[in-house]
Design goal:
There is one protein chain. It contains three helices and seven strands; from the N terminus they run ββαβββββαα. By secondary structure, the chain is α+β, with helices and mostly antiparallel strands. It has a single domain (about 5-130), classed as Hotdog Thioesterase (Thiol Ester Dehydrase, Chain A, Roll), CATH 3.10.129.10. The protein binds coenzyme A (COA). This is Acyl-CoA thioesterase.
Length: about 170
């Protein structure tokens, strides 16, 4: 299976915040944004592996700034690393006021997807080649983030998470 570059998976999803997307303060609801992020990151993962994918996990998300009614949401999604059947996708979310003409960052997040075969079993995915300095940094960190989420999901023993342990031990 041929490896693919990170930029080949890159997608940008754009949405307009309408009244039905907002809370009582006129800001985009977190749940609606996470739904859009799920779609954007699934598109990036699917673009990398050319297979149907399912969401395996969503890392913790902090909302740095709220996105206002009438503003535009831009979700940039790119695969950071592919493992066997799973892929980690990194997203940057921006709000844009098109009237005042400025952009602001809302949040960043990582979602993990698994590629499935026609029998709905996990299937191998192409390896990912990071090219830029930022892609290389995300690629290296992906191993530790994977270990943390597998420990939290009860799929890995902390003892086996060598890279994560090294981080805490300052090695
Ligand atoms: C995700 C899913 C396919 C994993 O299947 P599984 O039978 O547990 O398979 P495995 O244990 O062999 O794991 C397969 C891959 O999933 C990854 N995975 C499993 N649980 C995970 C978790 N909590 N977080 C991140 N990755 C996880 C494994 O690391 C493995 O990746 P790898 O092949 O790259 O090493 C399965 O649990 C599933 O279908 N879940 C429901 C998905 C869904 O419906 N999502 C929408 C929200 S409801």
């Amino acid at each position: 299976m041929n490896s693919k570059t990170a930029k080949e998976s890159f997608i940008v999803m754009t949405e307009l915040v309408l009244p039905n997307d907002t809370n009582v303060f006129g800001n985009l609801m977190g749940g609606r944004l996470m739904y859009w992020m799920d779609i954007a990151s699934a598109l990036a993962a699917g673009k990398h592996c050319n297979s149907p994918v399912v969401t395996a996990s969503v890392d913790n998300i902090s909302f740095e700034s709220s996105i206002k009614l009438g503003n535009v949401v831009h979700i940039e999604a790119k695969v950071t690393r592919a493992f066997n059947s799973s892929m980690e996708v990194h997203m940057k979310v921006w709000g844009e006021d098109t009237v005042q003409q400025y952009r602001y960052k809302s949040n960043e997040a990582y979602y993990t997807f698994v590629a499935l075969d026609p029998n709905r079993r996990p299937k191998p995915v192409p390896q990912l080649i990071p090219e830029t300095e930022e892609e290389q940094k995300l690629f290296e960190g992906a191993l530790r983030r994977r270990q943390l989420r597998l420990i939290l999901g009860g799929k890995m023993k902390p003892h086996d998470a060598a890279e994560l342990k090294a981080l805490f031990a300052g090695e």
